[in-house]
Write a structure and sequence with these properties.
Elements: H1 2-8, H2 12-19, H3 24-27, H4 32-49, H5 55-65, H6 71-80, H7 99-102, E1 110-120, E2 124-133, E3 139-145, H8 150-164, E4 169-172, E5 175-178
Parallel strand pairs: 1-4
Antiparallel strand pairs: 1-2, 2-3, 4-5
Helix pairs in contact: 4-6
Length: 184
């Protein structure tokens, strides 16, 4: 527009009116790039110094120091730098009905039985049977096989009963169950 005004020797006001532009757009100077770099530098320095500070603390500190940047601009740069903190996961507490009954007071009183599974070489799946004594935290059995049939599991448990004796309780993922004293 300035070149048009210079060639035609017309005033800027007249050229803007003919072209349908505002005069403010002619004199506007972009300051955003320099300001964005300055904000990014300040945010990087502050996050290195204060690792646990989130956006709100950083922004309030910048305001206290004397920077009068808009919070939306600072937040946009904060997100583009990926400085946002991850929210901690709230873990669900397991409610125990009878916490006194869960504690083992002697060896071979309670056993924990659990199955784990894993893939080897991204092809074959292996299942692992783990049996632990609750009181001594000793691993009584750890067997890895492609699959466990019920008969095979019963055979392993019978061998363990012969070796270690019969437990009062066997605890599984589904809870605990009392072993029958008379049933073999």
């Amino acid at each position: 527009m300035r070149t048009v005004a210079g060639e035609q020797q017309a005033s800027m006001r007249r050229v803007c009116r003919v072209l349908g532009q505002r005069r403010a757009s002619v004199y506007y100077k972009l300051r955003r790039a320099n300001e964005d770099d300055q904000i990014a530098d300040q945010l990087k320095v502050l996050t290195m110094r204060h690792l646990n500070w989130g956006f709100r603390l950083l922004f309030n500190y910048l305001r206290l120091v004397g920077h009068c940047w808009n919070h939306k601009k600072v937040y946009r740069i904060y997100r583009s730098l990926e400085l946002n903190l991850r929210k901690p996961i709230k873990r669900k507490k397991i409610k125990r009905d009878n916490p006194n009954t869960l504690a083992a007071s002697a060896v071979n009183q309670d056993w924990s039985l659990d199955f784990l599974s894993d893939k080897v070489n991204s092809e074959t799946q292996i299942r692992i049977l783990n049996v632990m004594d609750e009181f001594s935290r000793k691993c009584l059995l750890a067997v890895a096989q492609p699959s466990f049939k019920a008969r095979k599991l019963m055979r392993y448990l019978e061998q363990m009963v012969e070796t270690y004796g019969r437990p009062q309780y066997i605890r599984c993922d589904n809870g605990w169950s009392a072993t029958a004293a008379g049933v073999d």
